[in-house]
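User: Here's a chain of 1017 residues. Predict its fold as tokens.
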Amino acid sequence: MFSWGENIRDVFGLGKLKSINNTNSDNYSINFIRTKEPITQIAVGSEVAAFIRFRNDGRQLVSVGRMQEDRNETTWKLKAVDCKEKILSLSCGDAHVILLSEGGSVFCLNPSSSVPRAVGKLNPVIQVACGDQHSIALTKDGEVFAWGKNYNGQLGLGKGKPQTLSDPQHLKSLSGTPLAQITAGGDHSFALSLSGTVFGWGKNSTGQLGLGDTIDRLAPAPVTCLNPKKTILVCCGAEHTAVLTKGGIVFTFGSGRYGQLGHNSLRDELRPRLVAELWGSKVTQVVCGRDHTLAFVASHKKIYSFGRGKQGQLGNGVKIDQSVPLPVLLTQDQIDDLDVELIFAGGNHSFALCSSAPGSGKGLNDSRLRNVTLKLGDETINRWIAECDSKSWNEIKTEIKRIFSSASCLNGSFLDKSRDKHYQTSLKHSGIDLSVVRVASQNLAKKDKVLNEVKGVVMRFLLPSLNNDPIGVEDLRIYLILPELLRVLQKKQCSTDIVEGSAAAILRLNPDKLLILEGLWLTLSESYFRTVVKAFCSVTSGFFEPGAENHCFKSMTIILKVLQRLYDVNSKRHRRLPDTTFHINNVGSIFQTVQNLKSEMEEQDIEWNFGISDVDHGTYVTTRKRISDIIKLYEDGISLLKKYPFVLDTEVKLSGVWMDDLNWCKSFHQSEYGLCLKLMAVGRETLLDDTFQFLRQITCHMDDLKVKFKAENGLDYGGVSLEFFCILANELLTMNPKILEVDQESGLAWFTTDDCDITDEFYFLGMLCGKALYNQCVLNLCFPLALFKKLLGLIPTLDDLKELSPTEASGLQYVLDQDEDVVEDLYLVFMDKKQELIPNGEKVSVTSVNRKNYVDMYVDMKLNKSVQNQFAEFEQGFLKGCPIKTWKMFLPEELMLLLQGEENYEWDKLRENAKYLGFRPTDDIIQHFWNVFTEFSLEQKKTFLTFLTGTDRLPRGKSLSKLQMTITCLDCTDPDGHYPKAQTCYVKLFLPNYSSVDILRKQVLHAITHCEVFGDY
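Assistant: Prediction complete.
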């Protein structure tokens, strides 16, 4: 061993010493010591020193000494410690020693005593560290405990804690962080995660926490500027800190009073600063004394020192401070055959343990850091699977509990170490390899006994213990790991309790941490994101299965809230999952079940009232109540689902929720106000003027709108309204003055932005759109999706502008995609034509830095601000026209199809579903009709559809596959002289029995092309 520094004359009595450097004073020489026994650990504080040695017989010897004053000289008296357990490591404070046994027990030793005192009841501990007057411990299951003085928050327990705590206290804020190391300085402490995140707390008067200020921290705070540095070691002095990266780079910060930071300066550093003098030399070890620092470069066999040197602790042969790293004066002939294993720095002492064993000294080899927290790996799982039926099952259960009850252990188990990706953990990268998580989960499922035990531990211990306010991204990995476990559990048809517990844990997260988790979801691949969605979505259908009446809707609500979060994330993903991924598969059957139950109850009531029931009164009442309770349960479920419409497919929304609310609203208004029927008479030539005049005269509530074309006899049972709205669309698009403009490139309509007063036409336009939706009619104004997003409170994006104005949007995309110099050469400013996008925008140039902001503001101007008043009037009218709010459950795409109809023409279905009255399908006239219809062009077929139904666009949910046309024989004396007729309200075609296919073709074409009036039908 080499030793230098204060009172090295007897070197604690560790062995024979020999001075190896030629200095004027032996008090400041470097000594080479041939120790009596091999030394494995050294710790020296201000008043105490401790060593772990091994005797020749292999027995361990722990020696502790205390500084004493003897005839004006400082001496150290060592004495053996009576240890019943083998000591793995130790650490010294100012006047106390903490011992860690191989079995994970912690002992505190007062140097005046030779008998260690057990510290608290801790789970097996793997690391200990001491500050001046406080201690911290890291357990095998990843938990951190602290005790001692707490004047500056060095225990990290947060606000409101006592200034002194004798018993170990749990640092809950670090409970989910997978840690690699703990360490402590004078009155500050640090923890290092497996992914290189550094957390500091305690005294910060000189910036020793590296947080950029001098404010003490009462709880762990991340040193974010070190995140990308791949930190592997942290060490602390009294008021300074040093960190070592995987690349062998050293950063220091804190007090520079004695030059202990190595920056050729005595200035304090509030943030980590690279030690430039060590640049290019791969440092393998760094240690801090009280006010000095040592760094070891294994490749050169050199130890560098800097900082306070008044006691010779720098090994430079003099007693002066040194602010730059310089080599310790070890002579080459002494170390040629030796490798430095470990270096140590005490208060004013320095040590280097050496070995002649081949291959030693190659890298970090500190036994204090060898033991790490438990992890879950293939080897462990395979052992559980192989031995779970043996006598060792109880031991396996204990191991399962330790790992699966600890978020820290699980978060550190699946690190993505390929190309050090786990060191890149950030808001956009979790640092774990989910493919390894998936394999591990599948392996656990190989044995039900093991999987069930895991499930029980997760339910009883892990989920309740998850921190609501995790300190960093690494803590949130557990929410990416659990869905893979849920996936294999669901295959085993396990209960929903664990899914509900996982969802509840997510919702307990503080809002800012939940946003971080959503950011991680956003970065997942499609496969793993689908797993997260399915983990929660798959159980929802179980709430509506037979026998599920006792399920609590509170549980369902919790899961639906998480699904809502996932659905919102999905809408932001570059590659979205289909909306069907979120649908509850069997929810459509609820509505039919309710109807069946209501019918059953009505039948029972009839039988009872007419005296034909053979059940007694008690049975009747009980049965009726049971059915009523079930109906109430399902209706409550339906009410809940209405709040989360993304889990319902379009058909369920239309046939169930939408139609139920529509019918209820109409029946309510009829019962409340009487029949609120308004008949609007319009002329085909003056349709728009008549419509606006009618709407201006309405002063009361209008539930239903019926239309009559002037001078025509048709009654409106639906078909007249369909044609009215079909014609109205063309009139609105061509009205003068215009309220809608049609983009020549996209063919889509948008509000006019001409400088004119906002008239009531925008309000009436909205009312007509709302009334068309309410009356289940099609009003195809070719609006872009952006309009329906705005109605639903969603913000339009550049993609929406691409739909409305492709050329304009492509120019904006060009600005986003180009290199920096190209953007600046465009000479763009924050203007849209003559409108400023920001105050004084004419003088603000678009650069590569602000171009995203420019594009966002441009889109906002086009789709929002420029039509703000127009849209406000339209929206108000829309809400008036459609008085029920259920339309808000539809997606923008669904709402657009509801209002504008769809063009998914399944012409074959029209023939397949046709019914005949007065004809048979095999009659020649019917065969001729379908042959002629097949010959029609697409436009002719759409014209026929208008003739038959009143519109050429199909209302959503009324596709041709569901449209049942009836072809009826038109009884007349001269069939060839008559045209076909249609009854649009009932989708009936009255067809004369023509004598030939040619006459049929001629008469049908004439009828669908020129007939624009409603007759007697």
